[in-house]
Amino acid sequence: MSFDVDIHGNVGATEIRCRIEPVDGLTVLFGPSGAGKTSVLNMIAGLIDPGAGHIRVAGRTLFDESWDPWDFNSMPPERRRAGYVFQDSRLFPHMKVVANLRYAAPDRPLDLAPIAFLGIDHLLDRWPRSLSGGEARRVAIGRALLSDPAFLLLDEPLSSLDAPRREEITRAIEHLRDVVRLPILMVTHDAAEAERLGTRIVAMGD
Ligand SMILES: Nc1ncnc2c1ncn2[C@@H]1O[C@H](COP(=O)(O)OP(=O)(O)OP(=O)(O)O)[C@@H](O)[C@H]1O
Fold first, then answer.
1. SUPFAM superfamilies given for it (predicted)?
2. Quick count: other Cβ atoms within 10 Å of Cβ 35?
3. Where are the domains of the chain?
4. Which one of 7, 10, 11, 40 would you pick to mutate in the ligand 1 pocket, going by the greatest count of ligand atoms within 8 A of its CB?
5. Domain at 3-203: CATH code
């Protein structure tokens, strides 16, 4: 079971409505700029309040308007186990790549499998400021995976990359979808990307 979402709320003056039927694999949220795609990811991560509806992911309820709001109708973000890869990577600038990767589990041995398939082994001793956009994106995906997430939220993971870098990250996402089999919700406004990666495409803002 994957993302089962039906939410209706407001972000500033914008009304956000989104319905995602559960399907295994990768769900693409597709739509024009300003449609509310990032806001939906933030609601699923627990960073903003969805207002009304429900959010269930991989069989766990993260938000349900019918829960008593005085007694919390929302699971706190740190318990949701979201692996969130932000559009702008947001690596910790004062930590080397290896420390960014270990951030969520500093006492656990470093899991080398994601580091190998993301091709970031040679970057471990580098500072984030010295990385290219594609390298930083791959490290951000690695940091999310090493937090032992129950699901992944990817916000425009292929934007502003050159063609070879896009292909590398596309293959990494295909690996996560087909081999690791994590539930993935990915935002894009690129139709070809949506077609290639999406098991299901959910349009927003039409
Ligand atoms: N914190 C906020 N306060 C007020 N309005 C906001 C806030 N965050 C987002 N919005 C507005 O909500 C709308 C949806 O924004 P959101 O970033 O979710 O869209 P998006 O589909 O992800 O766009 P893009 O593809 O450009 O990233 C926009 O009109 C935006 O200006």
1. P-loop containing nucleoside triphosphate hydrolases
2. 20
3. 3-203
4. 11
5. 3.40.50.300
